[in-house]
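Researcher: Here's the sequence for the chain we discussed earlier.
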Amino acid sequence: MADYSELANTLIDLVGGKRNIQTIENCVTRLRLNVVDAKKVRINDIKKVKGVLGAQFSGTQFQIIIGNNVSDVCETIKAQLGKLSNEATNEKKKGNFLTHLMEILSGIFTPTLSALIGAGLLKGTVTLLVTFNLISVKGDTYQILNMIGDAAFYFLPFILAVSSAKKFKTNEYLALCVAGVLLYPTMVDGFNGIVAGESVTHLMLFGILPVPYLAYTSSVIPIILATYFLSRVHAWIKGWMPEMVSLMFTPMITLLLVVPVTLVVLGPLGTYIGAGLSIIILWLFEHLGILAGALVGTFYPFLVITGMHWALIPLIANNFSEFGYDASLSPIMLAATFAMAGATFGVFFQTKKQEMKQISLSAGLSAKINTYPNFRSISFSTRFHWYKSCSTFS
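Model: Thanks. This is the structure I predict for it:
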């Protein structure tokens, strides 16, 4: 790994120093910081730093666009910062609902990218091997490779439980317990029995509250809602529970409250919300046809630049969960990304600036599309350079 100590030190200083940084994370191409005082951020100086491709405020979050090496830069900065005294602050920040929603979705999905991208690429590779008759779907090799590729998506609620718990600052292990109940064999077998047309005895909590059998494998919204509820309940119980017995009774009471509410209310609610959103998306594409695709494809690059594309991720994931495929958003995003990659190569052939040639070539070549498109990685900020450079050939 290259040495990013100097770059990290410079960015910390220009952002206002350690005391001005509350949190710092990274997505595929950019650093995402929450700062104490936005006025201390020297944004114009940051844009001039070698290795920085751009900088902007998105709502209350400050973003520094780095590119492919963003994760290494982020780790270097974290190492220099050490423990941030502001990390645990719960100060309510200004900003509209959409801004907060984008920040939450980004914080939940970004840490999961490595697992989902790796598993998705493997699933695509297995599909190619089968297509070209290199392996048989009846063979052991296919079964093993399919298990490896499918596990991350089948057990997606477990993965999202951890990332959601970290985002909502609650106990990850309790969140995993909640996800475990949703994917417990009783729930899975009950749902499969209903689908198969078998006679299934429905669960009744306390004999009065029905617990529906639903498909929580690969689901997204139910576990996010449940983990948010868990964070509030756990904090509330911990606040009044005597310290000497808190270790024993706080987790127990938390689970006794959170899991039933999740099974009876939040789980079904999240499932129905996800299904409803998927139906709306499909309706738009069925009735508006090419117009719907043109609108999504046109505005998708700008959604990415502002971070608003995170709002689409749960919809795409839910389409895969509900139907096993996404025939609407993902293909349009795929086409939009190829268009941006083409524009980036156009910059490479037209510009006379050596640095811009290097950036545009790297961006174009590394515009890789994951087989599971909604969790793909467009490496190096191809989308950013499409936006920044394609109209400034020089």
